[in-house]
Specification:
Mean pLDDT: 93
Low-confidence stretches: none
Bound molecules: 5'-O-[(R)-(carboxyoxy)(hydroxy)phosphoryl]adenosine, zinc ion
Oligomer: single chain
Number of strands: 10
Helix content: 40-55%
Largest sheet: 5 strands, mixed
């Protein structure tokens, strides 16, 4: 830490990662500690909410101490404590939010509440602090597939969203049927490396002309039906070929719609966000499309795409500049619209989904 730097400490516990990070001036990572519970939930094939909450409770002090120590700071150096009180699993959110309140109270520091998905979007600005709103973001995670206009640090507008399954959700489900394990996204990414993406022709669903919405349930069902039918016929299913064909179909639609969302903008900037943004084919193809169209593309490093607390600290750094602080009455919201402005913690401003 250098003299005069603004220090934000972020806390993230919305799903199965217990994370604490320390950020200087919104873009220098002093520490970014993530304790993943993936190995515990793998046994169940998905996240078990109560187990996730208990592990947050057991781990949060250790992760917090490590983040502070690794950053080489003391709590007195921190300018604000940031936390994401939603969306996510209720019990998991309660752990991080209660812990953040306790630290803010004990250290006498202000508390900033940030929206978990808005924080995913802000993760891009850690490595690209030159990017400022307005810009467009493609948010692809386990629960979200959204094209978002970020008009300001606290103003997010939905341009399009999935009408059924989220991209990460379909990766996870198809991987399960292919027996590739959990979490499915990274498993499909790896399996696809040796597969032929033209082996199975999955339809690309674009919906009505001009729509920025998505629909992935058709591709998911087609993939699962294909696997079951092959097996019923006693035929081998080449997991690598199916994974590569399925991945290519999902990625094609994500790239096409993202390019539609930025077309016509004067200085188009596209920010990729969420766990699926670490998918290597998506990163490659969207990079090529943006280069061809003259779009400034921001893709965070994979560690900043999946759940982490540096993104929470970054979002809070920008919010506090607008004077948005929470208080010790802060609640949690498991289902919180991405259009909610958590700077205005007034019941009428909270939009649920
Ligand atoms: O953003 P995230 O860490 O958690 C939330 O859902 O908020 O996203 C998790 C999702 C999971 O569905 C996971 O399978 C997917 O991101 N994912 C991937 C990859 N890495 C993670 N999907 C495709 N390719 C990947 N490399
Ligand atoms: Zn997330």
């Amino acid at each position: 830490m250098k003299d005069g730097q603004h220090i934000t400490l972020g806390i993230e516990t919305s799903c199965d990662e217990t994370a604490v990070a320390v950020l200087a001036d919104g873009c220098h990572i002093l520490s970014n500690i993530i304790s993943s519970q993936i190995d515990i939930h793998r046994t169940y094939g998905g996240v078990v909410p109560e187990i996730a909450s208990r592990h947050h409770l057991q781990n949060i002090n250790v992760v917090f101490a490590e983040a502070v120590e690794h950053a080489g700071i003391s709590l007195q150096d921190v300018d604000e404590i940031a936390v994401a009180p939603g969306p996510g699993l209720a019990g998991a959110l309660l752990m991080g939010t209660a812990f953040a309140k306790a630290v803010a109270f004990a250290a006498g520091k202000p508390l900033v509440a940030v929206h978990h998905i808005q924080a995913h979007i802000m993760a891009g600005l850690i490595e690209r602090p030159d990017i400022k709103p307005p810009f467009v973001a493609l948010v692809v995670s386990g629960g979200h597939t959204h094209l978002i206009a970020c008009d300001d640090y606290n103003r997010f507008r939905i341009l399009g969203q999935t009408r059924d399954d989220a991209a990460g959700e379909v990766f996870d489900k198809v991987a399960r049927v292919l027996d590739l394990g959990y979490p499915g996204g990274p498993a499909i990414d790896i399996a696809s490396e040796t597969g032929n993406s033209g082996a199975v022709a999955f339809k690309r669903v674009h919906l009505e002309k001009g729509s920025l919405d998505f629909s992935f349930s058709g591709i998911k069902t087609a993939a699962i039906n294909y696997i079951h039918t092959q097996r019923q016929k006693g035929l081998d299913v080449d997991a690598a070929d199916v994974a590569a064909s399925f991945q290519a179909a999902v990625v094609d639609v994500l790239v096409d719609k993202s390019m539609m969302a930025v077309s016509g903008l004067r200085s188009p900037v596209l920010v990729l966000a969420g766990g699926v943004a670490s998918n290597r084919l998506l990163r490659r193809n969207i990079k090529a499309a943006c280069e061809a169209a003259g779009v400034d593309l921001c893709i965070p490093s994979p560690v900043l795409c999946t759940d982490n607390a540096a993104m929470v600290a970054c979002a809070a750094y920008h919010k506090r500049r607008q004077g948005f602080y929470a208080d010790l009455y802060l609640d949690v919201w498991p289902r919180l619209s991405i259009e909610t402005d958590l700077g205005l913690l007034d019941a009428k401003n909270i939009k649920l989904i």
